[in-house]
Design brief:
It is built from 24 helices and 16 strands. It is α/β, with parallel strands linked by helices.
Length: 753
C-alpha cells in the first residue's frame, strides 16, 4: 500500500527541510533534561535484557521465512494468504504467545473482464500482462495470480477520446483549462507519481472524465533511473503497478462498514451507496502499453514539466486517439485473516504495546510486505527466547500480521474499529513496519515519541557503517545542507496514510510509529509480479542485515515501553514540531494572499493576454476571491500554554527521584500519559471526512498518502474555504488546550511525592 522506504527517506528529508528550528532549546536552564533510563528504567538490567534479545536474532530465519511466504501470490482471499496467516500464527504460538486468527468479512473486488484497446486512429490491442523471466523463479506463476488492476475501480464499458493529464492532480487540470482543454466525456491518461494513485481517478471524475488509465513512466519508474529488471532493479517495460484506488482520504477500511468492524453479521451499505468506491473505471498499464497511446495523441505539446522518458513527443490531445476501456469485477466479500499473538503483562496487563506488519501482497510481495513481516517475526521469536529465561513483560505485548492491507488497510482498520473502545482504554502505543530495504532508518510518527525514538536510534549501530543509526542519518542531513542535522534529536516525519498505522493514529488517537530502512534499495518492483524473492535477494537486503537491525530497533522500543515505570512520552519535542506546523500554516496564509493579489493584478493589467502567443491557445487563469486576514491569536495563545505545560513536565521529571513514586502513582501517571495523544482527536473529525479525527495530522484530501499538518487549517487555505480556516483555528486551539491539560495532570502527579 505504501511508498517504498527508498522513497520514504526522501520524504523524511523533505519534512526536515521545511522546518526552521535547528534545536529544541531549553527554556529553563535549571531544568536538566533526563533520559528514559534516568527516571524509569534500570540501566544495567535493561541493557542486559536487550543484549540477550540481540544475541537471539538470526538473519537466516528471515531468509527461510521470506522464501516460503513469498513463494506464491498471497493477496487477500487467496489460499496462500490464509496459509501465511496460519504460518505466522503457528510460529507466534510456538514462541510463547497466546495466539488466535481474527477474521473480518471485507469487500474486495476481483477482475472478471479487463480490456483496453486503441480503436482510433488505428487499432492496437495492448499486452496488459507481465512476462515470465528465467532470472525470476516465481514470475511464471499464474495460479491464483491477480492481473494488473486497480481495486475499487467501478465497472464500466466506455469509449472516448484520450487526454493526457500529466500526474492527474488538481494543478494539472488548472493547466489544461488554460490550454482550453476540457476532459468532460473523455478518458484520461495519467502518469503514476505526483500523488497517490487514487487521487487521479477522483480528480478526473470531478472534472467530468468517464475513465482513467494510469501508467508508470520510465522517467519516474523505469530505464531513465537505471538498468531495468532483470539486469538492474528498476521497472521493466511490461511491469504493471497494481494498487487500490479506494477514496481512502475519506475513510480507509471496508467501504461497506464505515466506522465499525466488518464482522459476519455487520450491517452493510449497498455497494452503490459506498462513497469511497471510485465512480469511473480505472486501469493501470505498463509504459510499453502506454507508448502506442501517447504516439496516437495530437493536440498541444505538453509543457516541459509534463514530459516523461518515452521516445515520443508528449501531446495532450484530446484525440485523435480514441480508446475502449471495459472493466467488470466480482464484487464479493473476502475473509481477511489477522493472526494476533499476545503475552500478558505481569504488572500492567491492561496497558498494551502493539506491533504490526501486513502479510498480504499484490503478487509474490517479497519486499512489500514480507521483508517487514519476517523482521517482525524474528523480533517476536527473540522475545520468545527471553520468555524461556523466566522474564515476563510488565505490559501486555501484542504482535499482529494484518491481512488485506493492500486493497484499503482493511485488516487493521476493521480490527481498530471493532475494538476501538478497548484500544482507547488500554493501548499505550502502536509500532508499524511495512517492508524494509537498505540504507537509512526512516521514522515517522507521533512526536510525543520523538525523543524516545532518538534514544534508541543513538544506540543501535548501522550494520554496514558501524556508527549509530542516528549519526548516519545526521551525516546525510549534513551532506544535504539541512540545518536540522545539528538538532540534538533528529526529527521524525508526521504520518499521513498508506499503511496500517492509519486507523490507530488518525481514528483512535493511539501514539504510533512507522519504521523501515531505505534510500539505497533497488526500486522498480513495487506492486508487480517482480516483487519477488529473487529481486529482493539481488537488489535489496539480501543478507538481511538491515531486516535484523530493524528487529533490534523495534525490539528495544517494545522492551523499553514494556519495562518503563513511567512511560517514555516527552513533550518538548512535540511542542517544537507543533510550532513548525503553526508557522508553516501562517506562511501558507501569507503566500495564498500574496499569490492571489499578484494574479488579480496581472489580470487587471491584461498581462496574460498581452504576453501570450497569439498562435497558441493559452487562456488567462481565473480571478481569485480576496483572501481575508485570519486571526491566529487563539492558536498562538493555546500554543504558549502548551509549551509551558511541556516544560513543566520536564521540570517535574528532572526533580523526580528514581523509585520515589508509589505503585498507585505510577499507574495513575501512566494512565494519563497514554491518553495525551488521544486528546488530539476530535469527535467531529475533519471537514468532509469525519472518520479522520486527529487535528494535528491527516493524509491530504488530494495527496492521499502525503501528510497535511493542522489539516483543517491547511486544506482550508489550499482549497480557499475561508470559513473552514477560521473554524479550525479555533478547533486546533481547543485541541492544544486539551493536550496541555493532560500534560499538566501528569506533572501534578509526579510532584506528589
Amino acid at each position: 500500500m505504501k511508498l517504498r522506504f527508498n522513497l520514504a527517506i526522501f520524504l523524511l528529508i523533505i519534512v526536515n527541510g521545511c522546518v526552521n528550528s535547528p534545536t529544541v532549546k531549553n527554556s529553563d536552564p535549571e531544568i536538566n533534561l533526563v533520559s528514559t533510563f534516568d527516571v524509569s528504567l534500570d540501566l544495567k538490567d535493561q541493557k542486559a535484557l536487550e543484549s540477550q534479545f540481540d544475541s537471539a536474532l538470526d538473519p537466516q530465519n528471515l531468509d527461510i521465512w521470506m522464501k516460503h511466504m513469498s513463494s506464491k501470490p498471497h493477496h487477500v482471499g487467496s489460499p496462500w494468504s490464509k496459509q501465511n496467516a496460519e504460518y505466522i500464527a503457528k510460529h507466534l504460538k510456538s514462541w510463547g504467545f497466546e495466539t488466535e486468527i481474527e477474521t473480518f468479512e471485507v469487500l474486495v473486488p476481483f477482475p472478471k473482464i479487463m480490456k483496453l484497446e486503441l480503436i482510433e486512429p488505428n487499432k492496437v490491442s495492448l499486452k496488459l500482462n507481465e512476462p515470465a523471466l528465467k532470472e525470476d523463479a516465481t514470475s511464471g506463476i499464474k495460479k491464483d495470480l491477480l492481473p494488473g488492476y486497480n481495486a475499487f475501480s467501478s465497472d464500466g464499458n466506455v469509449t472516448a477520446e484520450l487526454v493526457f493529464v500529466n500526474y492527474g492532480i488538481p494543478g494539472d487540470y488548472e493547466e489544461l483549462a488554460r490550454l482550453g482543454i476540457d476532459v468532460k466525456g473523455k478518458i484520461v491518461l495519467a502518469k503514476y507519481g505526483g500523488s497517490w494513485r487514487g487521487i487521479k481517478p477522483k480528480v478526473a471524475y470531478e472534472n467530468g472524465a468517464i475513465g482513467c488509465i494510469i501508467f508508470s513512466d520510465p522517467k519516474d519508474d523505469g530505464y531513465v533511473r537505471g538498468d531495468v529488471y532483470p539486469k538492474g532493479p528498476f521497472r521493466m517495460e511490461h511491469g504493471i503497478q497494481r494498487g487500490s484506488v479506494l477514496d481512502m482520504p475519506m475513510y480507509p477500511g471496508d467501504p461497506l462498514t464505515p466506522g465499525y468492524g466488518a464482522t459476519k453479521d455487520a450491517k452493510r451499505l449497498a455497494i452503490e451507496d459506498a462513497p469511497t468506491i471510485m465512480k469511473i473505471p480505472v486501469m493501470p498499464i505498463s509504459y510499453a502499453d502506454a507508448l502506442p497511446l501517447l504516439k496516437a495523441l495530437e493536440g498541444p505539446v505538453a509543457p516541459d514539466a509534463w514530459k516523461g522518458g518515452l521516445p515520443v513527443t508528449y501531446h495532450i490531445g484530446p484525440g485523435p486517439a480514441k480508446v475502449n476501456l471495459h472493466l467488470e469485477f466480482e464484487w464479493e466479500l473476502r475473509t481477511a485473516y489477522n493472526p494476533v499473538g499476545r503475552i500478558k503483562g505481569s504488572v500492567y496487563p491492561n496497558e498494551w504495546i502493539m506491533r504490526g506488519n501486513h502479510h498480504d501482497g499484490w503478487a509474490q510481495g517479497a519486499a512489500d510486505p514480507i521483508s517487514g513481516m519476517v523482521s517482525l517475526m524474528e523480533e517476536a521469536r527473540a522475545i520468545g527466547e527471553l520468555l524461556k529465561t523466566g522474564w515476563k513483560p510488565k505490559r501486555t505485548l501484542i504482535y499482529a500480521g494484518w491481512d488485506a492491507e493492500e486493497p484499503a488497510l482493511l485488516g487493521s482498520t476493521e480490527w481498530v474499529e471493532h475494538n476501538r473502545d478497548e484500544i482507547r482504554e488500554k493501548m499505550v502505543a502502536y509500532i508499524n513496519t511495512d517492508g524494509t530495504g537498505v540504507g537509512f532508518l526512516s521514522v515517522g510518527g507521533s512526536h510525543s515519541l520523538e525523543k524516545f525514538v532518538n534514544e534508541v536510534s543513538a544506540e543501535v549501530l548501522d550494520p554496514v557503517q558501524n556508527i549509530s543509526l542516528q549519526e548516519r542519518n545526521r551525516a546525510r542531513l549534513r551532506v544535504n545542507g539541512n540545518k536540522d542535522a545539528e538538532r540534538e534529536d533528529l526529527r521524525i516525519y508526521p504520518l499521513g496514510a498508506g499503511s496500517d498505522y492509519t486507523a490507530f493514529i488518525h481514528h483512535a488517537g493511539v501514539p504510533s510509529l512507522n519504521l523501515g530502512f531505505g534510500g539505497e534499495s533497488g526500486g522498480g518492483s513495487y506492486h508487480s509480479i517482480f516483487d519477488s524473492y529473487d529481486h529482493y535477494k539481488r537488489f535489496s537486503d539480501g543478507d538481511y542485515k538491515y531486516g535484523t537491525t530493524l528487529a533490534k530497533v523495534n525490539g528495544r522500543l517494545v522492551l523499553r515501553l514494556s519495562e518503563s515505570d513511567i512511560l517514555p512520552f516527552r513533550f518538548i519535542n512535540m511542542v517544537d514540531n507543533i510550532e513548525t506546523f503553526i508557522e508553516s500554516n501562517k506562511k501558507l496564509a501569507e503566500d495564498v494572499a500574496k499569490k492571489t493579489d499578484q494574479r488579480n493584478n496581472l489580470l487587471d493589467l491584461k498581462a496574460f493576454t498581452i504576453a501570450g502567443n497569439p498562435k497558441k491557445t493559452y487562456l488567462p487563469p481565473k480571478r481569485l476571491d480576496e483572501v481575508p486576514n485570519f486571526d491566529f491569536s487563539p492558536l498562538d495563545a493555546a500554543f504558549v500554554r502548551l509549551k509551558a505545560s511541556a516544560w513543566n513536565y520536564e521540570k517535574a521529571l528532572s526533580n523526580l527521584q528514581k523509585g520515589s513514586l508509589s505503585a498507585e502513582q505510577k499507574a495513575e501517571v501512566n494512565n494519563v500519559l497514554k491518553n495525551v495523544d488521544q486528546a488530539m482527536v476530535s469527535d467531529g473529525g475533519l471537514p468532509r471526512r469525519d472518520w479522520f479525527k486527529n487535528m494535528l495530522y491527516a493524509p491530504g484530501f488530494y495527496t492521499g498518502y502525503g501528510v497535511k499538518t493542522l489539516p483543517g487549517i491547511r486544506e482550508g487555505l489550499e482549497e480557499r474555504n475561508w470559513n473552514e480556516v477560521d473554524t479550525y483555528i479555533q478547533e486546533v486551539a481547543k485541541t492544544l488546550d486539551r493536550v496541555a491539560a493532560k500534560i499538566n495532570t501528569a506533572s501534578n502527579i509526579l510532584r506528589r511525592e
